[in-house]
Amino acid sequence: MFHTSLSLNDLGFLAQGAGVTLLITFWAMLGGTILGIVFGVFRATTPWWATAPLAFVLDIFRSVPLLIQLVLVNAFQAIAGLNVSAFMVSCVVLALYTSAYCSELVRGGIAAVPLTTRRAARSLGLTWWQDMTQIVYPIALRIMLPSWIGLTLGVMKDTALVSWLGIIELLRTSQIIVTRIQEPLFVLTVAGLIYFIISFPISRLGARLERKWREND
Amino acid sequence: MFNYTFHWRPAFQALPHMLSGAVVTLQIAILSMIIGVAIGVLLALMSGSGNKIFRGIASTWIEIARNTPALFQIYMAYFGLGQFGIHLDSFVALLAGIAFNNAGYLAETFRGGLRVVPATQVRAARSLGLGSVSAFRLIVLPQMFRAVFYPMTNQMVWAILMTSLGVVVGLNTDLTGVTQELNVKTFRTFEYFALAAVLYYLIAKAVTLGARAFAYRLFRY
């Protein structure tokens, strides 16, 4: 019969790790989305030569492995004597990383709003701000939201890398349990299942939203 | 603040060593893409087939690959398979993990790409006397690859970035592995990893630009 040394306590430990994973995801998405919207609107509404430096920096976040970014920023804060916790470093790096992708989404969403619609809004007497909030925002949101959900799940999965800085999140807790009870396959499967349970329903929701909203177009 | 002197010279002296690591990184990425594309096409076909078992296998693979972290998949290959008596070294485990991940994402891409090719074309090809295999190979595949070329380039860049996870399972020959080994010897973390970041950036850019040039030559009407 199947026998395992995985105790109820260990499951609690895994759940705790999952909580850390979700917490980091939350902060990264919060910071990343706010920054992403600011950067995205800036890049969509300003001529390309003015935003080229920003575009270059954001491109770096997408072209360098996240692991390297984490190590670099962590080393830098140690050198600069900032005395910031590894948790803080992870959240900041992940937020910047997220903002690079999010700004791309926002830019794409704004670009997808037909220019004629926006000109019509402006010639009806709406201000730039009203045009952005009343016309562009609702139309761009439907285009962006499914991809934004996908981005959230991507970031959630990428948080597994922060274990390299010593943060005990879901995947790291599973490794700690493995070193004790020596059942890598089973414990990893449980950890993977937790990731799957978090990710799968949300990804399905995103796919459904995308399909549903496309029908109405 | 800043009681630290940067020592860039040892980092630059280690550059040849790191470049040889970059070659290994590219090797893993390319191999994982070749395996990933092959399995991805197969999975896309299976998920579109009438057979329930095939569809089940394909969707299980795709959903696991897309809904769990890449690091988890590499851990599974490295630690998990040991329970079956399969002991992969870190290079193979990393390759297997990335290829598994690539195949799942690419299958989803290919599934969309297959829809680009109208069914009438296949029927036309069959009535001209082509077999089902050669109709697929000569008519459907080239058009599908054209449609998915850009997402495939993205996946290639992703594969390059994913190779950096090898260091977590103890790989010390790829770019991150080499960098980490130098770091452990000298504790000049920032210098070495900054150089590695520049190299990764250059590799990613080279791949993107190369693919664009390649696409320009291939897909010009």
What does this structure look like?
The complex is a heterodimer of chains A (217) and B (221). Chain A has 217 residues and is mainly alpha-helical. Chain A has helices at 8-45, 48-63, 66-79, 86-112, 115-123, 128-158, 170-181, 184-216. The mean pLDDT of chain A is 90. In chain B, helix 8 runs antiparallel to helix 10 (189-218). Chain B has helices at 9-13, 15-48, 52-67, 70-78, 90-114, 119-127, 132-147, 149-162, 175-186, 189-218. Chain B has a single domain, classed as MetI-like fold (Orthogonal Bundle), CATH 1.10.3720.10. At the A-B interface, helix 3, helix 6, helix 7 and helix 8 of A face helix 3, helix 4, helix 8 and helix 10 of B.
Percent in strands of chain B:
under 5%
- Record field, number of beta strands of chain A: 0
What helical percentage do the residues of chain A reach? over 70%
Low-confidence stretches of chain B: none
pLDDT averaged residue by residue of chain A = 90
Q: Structural class, from helix and strand content of chain B?
A: mainly alpha
Largest sheet of chain B: none
Oligomer designation = heterodimer
